[in-house]
Amino acid sequence: MASSKNNTMVFLFLLVTLLIGSSSAQLSTNFYSKSCPKLYQTIKSTVQSAINKETRMGASLLRLFFHDCFVNGCDGSLLLDDTSSFTGEKRAAPNVNSVRGFEVIDNIKSAVEKACPGIVSCADILAVTARDSVVILGGPNWNVKLGRRDARTASQGAANSSIPAPTFNLNRLISSFSAVGLSTKDMVALSGAHTIGQARCTTFRARIYNETNNIDSTFARTRQNSCPRNSGSGDNNLAPLDLQTPSKFDNNYFKNLVNKKGLLHSDQQLFNGGSADSIVRSYINNPSSFNSDFVTAMIKMGDIRPLTGSNGEIRKNCRRRN
Ligand code: HEM
Questions:
Q1: Final residue of a structural domain among 112, 131, 163
Q2: Per the structure, how many domains does the chain have?
Q3: Ligand 1: residues within 6 Å at CB?
Q4: Which residues of 110-123 are buried (b: 16+ CB within 10 A; e: fewer)?
Q5: pLDDT, tens digit (0-9, with 9 covering 90-100), for 63-103
Q6: Which of 47, 61, 63 to mutate to test the pocket of ligand 1 (most atoms within 8 A of CB)?
Q7: What are the site positions for Transition state stabilizer (predicted)?
């Protein structure tokens, strides 16, 4: 009798340990409060001056966090340059000639290392930088959970297979987010990040020339003016993801979708007669619900498989392991 009670206790203890261990219980919003009290002001001022120089940089920095977290978790792996022993993620298809802002991260890392050497991970710098970018461009604020450590390796293959493509339809978008524990609502809210920033002609050419359903024809023609039909010409010409307010973090991205003016095929999939339509409508009718769902989803995305405790390392230089 006593032993079966003991067994039950052991079982419950293991269950609780497992449950706590499988979420990212180790991340906390005050992780560096003693070890690096100037962290937030150090990061914010560097992000602010980068955005003052070029507004688009805020968008580019937000995207870095997404492309880091979706590939084996938020572990700074995206930032590693290629070495002789592995090919990094920077040259994976979704990233090459596309992700940008690495020099800004270098500047932030140098400033942080000066303030508190060897303490703050590159993965955490990405998380705070993403939040600061959103706030500076007029979006919501939140407390960022910290305590991630940096990966010692990167995976080009995982970057190719884990980051959703702009050609995806709704089902594939939903499953690529659910593969990292994010819901359809999280997916729609996070896609609202396309309220800022730019995309290259090659990522939306097929939509503006070949799609007839669910694209406003005047919008398509306008975009065609600076994105030639044939690939190889004008591939890197840019267009704003939110045609109304590309430098402001607001809910206009969702209004564009209802007007059939989503730039990417994947954007318009969120309002195409399917299960996401009602979420898009709710973010138009109630902008504060977009803000709060975006924050919830950013925190959830930041919780994807962090390295904590004695796993990984605190890189000195975000481009290479120690
Ligand atoms: C839902 C699936 C998503 C797809 C298919 C997608 C795809 C893309 C593509 C193709 C571009 C343009 C890249 C280029 O032209 O080189 C882009 C830009 C961008 N994406 Fe996404 N994205 C998605 C979700 C997200 C999420 C979750 C975030 C952040 C939370 C995000 C943030 C951004 C930002 C801010 C830009 C503009 C970057 C800049 O101007 O430098 N995206 N995305």
A1: 163
A2: 2
A3: 56, 59-60, 62-63, 66, 98, 100, 164-166, 168, 173, 187, 190-191, 193-194, 196-200, 203, 241, 264, 266
A4: ebbbebeeeebbbb
A5: 999 999 999 999 999 999 999 888 999 999 999 999 999 99
A6: 63
A7: 63
pLDDT digits (tens, 9 = 90+) for 175-195: 999 999 999 999 999 999 999
| Whether residues 198 and 155 fall in one domain | no
114: CATH: 1.10.520.10
Q: What is the CATH number of the domain that holds 211?
A: 1.10.420.10
On whether residue 54 sits in a domain, the answer given is: yes
Domain boundary among 130, 163, 196: 163
Ligand 1 centroid to residue 308 C-alpha, Å: 27
Ligand 1 centre from 192 Cα, in Å?
Answer: 10
For residues 152 and 199, state if they share a domain: no
pLDDT of residue 26: 86
Domain span at residue 155? 39-163
Looking at the structure, do residues 181 and 112 belong to the same domain, yes or no? no
Between the CA of 12 and the centroid of ligand 1 the distance, in Å, is: 43
Task: Classify residue 282 by burial, with Cβ atoms within 10 Å: 0-12, 13-18, 19+.
Answer: middle
Contact criterion met (CB below 8 Å) for 280 and 270? yes
> What tokens does 233 get?
């010409």
Testing ligand 1's pocket by substitution, the residue of 54, 56, 61, 66 carrying the most ligand atoms inside 8 A of its CB is 66
**Are residues 181 and 136 part of one domain?**
no
Is 67 marked active-site?
yes
Do 156 and 245 fall into the same domain? Answer: no
Per-residue pLDDT, 25? 54
Q: How far apart are CA 145 and CA 130, in angstroms?
A: 12
Ligand 1 atom, smallest distance to 57 CA: 41
Q: Is the pLDDT confidence value at 234 over 80?
A: yes
